[in-house]
């Protein structure tokens, strides 16, 4: 399913949590969190909507490798004597330069996400916020897993919900775990409607659970995604109106 549809379904799920879950205060921030969580499983795909947003530093990553190559080359030329040591540094500089030149698209984005995740994790450690460190670990590691594997499981959903639970207690914001967990789970449910399905219990069970309604990217599939989003929105709206007795 397309990223835009996942985002829409996540936001609608957030509205459902805000309007129907007892004890959870309605909040735009909670709805936005559910939408963000609905995109999180696709961090395992370098071309996903969230990967492109969080991997904004990919161009800087490439230039960082090129800059490192220039610095190492200049250092070896100016400060080292001609010989094996200097040649070794030249080879290292060449390696950094080739890496920088070769990093394109998905590869650069994976590295950018790795650095983003590591930075988030370090910030969490520095601030004493365990949930932030766990979030950083997820962002750093997810891009290096195969698509629809580890991030598309009940275990990942539980992990994401636990991160929300820790954030809820650290921040004193009720409902974070529910917004986060429901948004994340909505992604897996939506992908289960595609022909590829989702291996919810991977790696314990390799079977892909699916109701093969949608062929992602096809005109009919895109139209059906819009219909599902619209129908889901009407259902949630009806349930909320019924609850408040409108």
* Proportion of strand residues: under 5%
Query: How big is the Rg?
Result: 22 Å
Q: Structural class given helices, strands, pairing?
A: mainly alpha
Mean pLDDT: 84
Distance between the termini: 34 Å
- Helical stretch count? 10
Describe the global form. Answer: elongated
Total number of beta strands = 0
Query: Helicity range of the residues?
Result: 55-70%
Low-confidence stretches: none
What does this structure look like?
By secondary structure, the protein is mainly α. The protein contains 10 helices and no strands. Helix 4 packs antiparallel against helix 5 (84-102) and helix 6 runs antiparallel to helix 7. The longest helix has 26 residues, at 219-244. The radius of gyration is 22 Å and the shape is elongated. The chain starts with a helix and ends with a helix. The mean pLDDT is 84.
Question: What is the structure about, briefly put?
Answer:
The chain is an all-alpha fold and 246 residues long. It is built from ten helices and no strands. It has helices at residues 3-20, 28-39, 49-54, 58-79, 84-102, 105-127, 130-141, 154-171, 176-191, 219-244.
Please render the helix and strand layout as text.
Elements: H1 3-20, H2 28-39, H3 49-54, H4 58-79, H5 84-102, H6 105-127, H7 130-141, H8 154-171, H9 176-191, H10 219-244
Helix pairs in contact: 1-2, 1-9, 1-10, 2-9, 4-5, 4-6, 6-7, 7-8, 8-9
């Amino acid at each position: 399913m397309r990223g835009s549809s996942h985002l829409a379904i996540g936001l609608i799920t957030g509205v459902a949590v805000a309007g129907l879950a007892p004890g959870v205060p309605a909040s735009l921030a909670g709805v936005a969190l559910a939408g963000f969580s609905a995109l999180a499983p696709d961090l395992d795909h370098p071309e996903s909507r969230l990967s492109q947003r969080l991997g904004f530093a990919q161009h800087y990553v490439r230039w960082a490798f090129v800059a490192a190559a220039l610095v190492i080359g200049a250092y070896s030329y100016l400060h080292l004597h001609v010989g094996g040591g200097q040649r070794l540094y030249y080879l290292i500089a060449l390696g950094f330069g080739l890496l920088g030149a070769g990093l394109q698209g998905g590869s650069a984005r994976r590295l950018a996400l790795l650095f983003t995740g590591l930075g988030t994790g370090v910030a969490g450690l520095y601030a004493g916020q365990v949930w932030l460190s766990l979030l950083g670990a997820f962002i750093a590691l997810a891009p290096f897993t195969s698509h629809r594997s580890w991030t598309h499981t009940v275990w990942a959903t539980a992990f994401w919900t636990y991160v929300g639970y820790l954030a809820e207690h650290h921040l004193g914001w009720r409902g974070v775990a529910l917004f986060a967990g429901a948004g994340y789970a909505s992604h897996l449910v939506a992908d289960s409607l595609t022909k590829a399905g989702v291996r919810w219990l991977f790696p314990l069970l390799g079977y892909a659970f699916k109701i093969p309604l949608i062929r992602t990217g096809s005109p009919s599939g895109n139209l059906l995604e819009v219909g599902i989003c619209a129908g889901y929105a009407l259902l949630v709206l009806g349930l909320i109106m019924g609850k408040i007795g409108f």
